[in-house]
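User: Can you predict the 3D structure of RNA-binding protein KhpA? Sequence below.
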Amino acid sequence: MKNLIESLVKPLVDYPEEVTIEAVEEDNRIIYKLTVHKDDIGKVIGKRGRVAKAIRTVVYAYAHTTENKKVFLEITE
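Assistant: Sure. Here are the predicted structure tokens for RNA-binding protein KhpA:
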């Protein structure tokens, strides 16, 4: 899952080396915490959150077919 998120986010940002993803597993869910450079946060979120929503749609669709747990994606700088 981390590879999927990286492959979606890295082409969008100016500082791809600062893209990090941390997975936090709980009983019935997995939270992926995406951290990007502070100058890239707007590119990842997009106007009115459209880019973030598109990234989440792809990630959630993939997770639905591969994971038995609920998946969440948090974007931070």
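The helical segments are 2-9, 41-45, 50-66. The radius of gyration is 12 Å.
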